[in-house]
Amino acid sequence: MAQLSETYACVPSTERGRGILISGDPKSNSILYCNGRSVIIRYLDRPLQVAVYGEHAYQATVARYSPNAEWIASADVSGTVRIWGTHNDFVLKNEFKVLSGRIDDLQWSPDGMRIVASGEAKGKSFVRAFMWDSGSNVGEFDGHSRRVLSCAFKPTRPFRIVTCGEDFLVNFYEGPPFKFKQSHRDHSNFVNCVRFSTDGSKFITVSSDKKGILYDAKTGEKIGELSSEDGHKGSIYAVSWSPDGKQVLTVSADKTAKIWEISEDGNGTVKKTLTCPGSGGVEDMLVGCLWQNDYLVTVSLGGTISLFSASDPDKAPLSLSGHMKNITSLVVLQSNPKVILSSSYDGLIVKWIQGIGYSGRLDRKVNTQIKCFAAVGEEIVSSGFDNTIWRSSLLGDEYGDAESVDIGSQPKDLSLALQSPELALVSIDSGVVILRGTKVISTIDLGFAVTACAISPDGSEAIVGGQDGKLHIFSVKGDTLTEEAVLEKHRGAITVIRYSPDVSMFASGDVNREAVVWDRVSREVKLKNMLYHTARINCLAWCPNSSMVATGSLDTCVIIYEIDKPASSRITIKGAHLGGVYGLAFTDECSVVSSGEDACLRLWKRNLIPLNQTASPSSSFLFALLSPTNSTSIIGVHRRHLYWTGPDTVIKYMTDGMLLREILIDENLSQYSVIMLDEAHERTIHIDVLFGLLKQLVKRRLDLRLIVTSVTLDAEKFSSYSFNCNIFTILGRTYPMEILYTK
């Protein structure tokens, strides 16, 4: 069983000349943003804890928590709003067709009963407010003639709604039912964002005319402006109020964020100017912001999320970045398996560190669009859609010296001879190119349509896959290839070929969803019937000890096969990546990292299941009962003076004291996927503390499952305490008894 251990999240989708409107939940310290069809839930104090909602049929644009944080409303470019739960499986509450075009912003009413959405329209209203449970209208919103970029719901009674947009107008509505009250044309360019203060006394609008204007929230009248002295020198795209309602945070195309002090009369003066780290290029323009608790969150055009401290804004910000476009390939550095490199179509390579997450992004010094790449030592080799192969050394989070060569045709696949990394094999439409460094040794026409290739680590053998589903094996001598064998097993075009680390095997996958493991010496099939995907196989990876191979597919799944077991004993990770899996690599014998069209990376581990026993003898007895000899490695035990687990351990018996000690070391218990508390009715101090800690942990870790068992458990009380979870009754074993009487 493989469980999700870490998620390296994508960054928000951005568009030049447009702001993005992010939101969050102060209680859980999480933020919401969109990328593609996904809505990302990201925790600011736990960057590796990420949840992804991917049920939109079209590109998602904006998402908002309900006031009680139990629901999320998200919208997309089709004008659809989906309302779904924040716990466990994101249960869908409702789906409504709200507008006839893209939705740019939405807000909940403070009582959580109504939602207002704004955006584009095709001959219809640009704004609509509706009941969250029925979808019925709660007002008419006239007054706009062009796209409405933002809307806001007054957080206190009497309710008010304010909208603003591309017609330079700020409209004020009273209700419910809501109706037009007044309009303001105080801005001379697009009005990008409007937000009410937390106490409901004011609202502020910001515009591409570099101005911010404040209004009275009850009457809608203008009361002040942000000072032009030390103000922004470019379009202001977003604004967010501080929790106390006395300051605002703004971001601008001038690449700065500013903290403004708002006086009682409604005027604002600059308190602090924040500059995010970066190269100063266009991608460093700031397009989104959020003030949440002590975090000042800014988002750049390049997608980088910077976290400043509101209490100490002079402190260097924490940067969270990643990919915005779908990931094409990934590799794990052989010199340090905890370092992962991933590439995306936009030419960006990002460096990740296992257990930490984002480490750095490499400036675009290689291909503008990367098709595939490989790494060996401290050097990376990439191929792109511009017909070039780049070689570059790595200097920390930056490129070193880089060289390129034009091979005259678009690369389809790339493989390095790991023992002689200067030697590379590149597949093109009807043949292959042999490279030594950045010099083309030979271009060979093979006479068939080539789709994939691989070269052995010692550079003596090459395997080329074709459109016809055949594997052609060649010996490599200098600049020539000599065909030695043709293997026919696949029924579709070959998509990927990889040698095992011990070079005793190789594996191949095709468009017809089949993978095959071959013995390199005999060239016979070693593992067959690997037909459990439902769409083409895009990638595969070998375990470092060559005992397992993993495949990733367009069907969004990752399947892990053990070489010495039949294919039917596979481990399947369903829904690994929305849109398909395009990259796979093992970091160790128990961990595999995947990437896909959703622009995210995920680390999967074969996790343990701890079974908690209240008494030390109980855990030892059950361990001895189920694992009678120490040669049994799938079951382990952990109690005072006894710790025994093996590399294949999946179930570990332990005392409550040991589990509490592990929580002190790792508050997220990241090595576990399921926790089972037995004999819970005993209600010791250890058990009660565990219940409190695990209840909070289950809320933070959506992938974790908690099972509570006992033969005398008052199930209703424990169920109500644990979010009204399901109760299952399992009949125990019974034994025949004979009753004897003395008289």
Helices and strands, with pairings:
Elements: E1 3-8, E2 23-25, E3 30-35, E4 38-43, E5 46-53, E6 60-65, E7 71-76, E8 80-85, E9 92-97, E10 103-108, E11 114-119, E12 127-131, E13 148-153, E14 160-165, E15 170-174, E16 179-184, E17 191-196, E18 202-207, E19 212-216, E20 222-225, E21 236-241, E22 247-252, E23 256-262, E24 268-275, E25 286-292, E26 295-300, E27 305-309, E28 318-320, E29 327-332, E30 339-344, E31 349-353, E32 357-362, E33 370-376, E34 379-384, E35 388-395, E36 398-406, E37 413-416, E38 423-428, E39 431-436, E40 439-445, E41 450-455, E42 461-466, E43 470-477, E44 480-488, E45 494-499, E46 505-510, E47 515-519, E48 525-530, E49 537-542, E50 548-553, E51 558-562, E52 571-573, E53 581-588, E54 591-596, E55 601-605, E56 609-613, H1 616-626, E57 635-639, E58 642-644, E59 651-655, H2 656-665, E60 674-677, H3 685-700, E61 705-708, H4 715-721
Parallel strand pairs: 56-59, 56-60, 57-59, 60-61
Antiparallel strand pairs: 1-55, 2-3, 3-4, 4-5, 6-7, 7-8, 8-9, 10-11, 11-12, 13-14, 14-15, 15-16, 17-18, 18-19, 19-20, 21-22, 22-23, 23-24, 25-26, 26-27, 27-28, 29-30, 30-31, 31-32, 33-34, 34-35, 35-36, 37-38, 38-39, 39-40, 41-42, 42-43, 43-44, 45-46, 46-47, 47-48, 49-50, 50-51, 51-52, 53-54, ...
Helix pairs in contact: 2-3
What is the β-strand count? Answer: 61
Largest beta-sheet characterization: 6 strands, mixed
Report mean pLDDT, rounded to a whole number: 89
Distance between the termini: 58 Å
The first-level CATH class of the largest domain is given as Mainly Beta
SSE class: mainly beta
Instruction: Could you tell me the CATH topology label of the largest domain.
Output: Methylamine Dehydrogenase, Chain H
- Which parts are unreliable, with pLDDT below 50 for 5 consecutive residues or more? 616-623, 628-632
The main sheet orders its strands as: 58-57-59-56-60-61
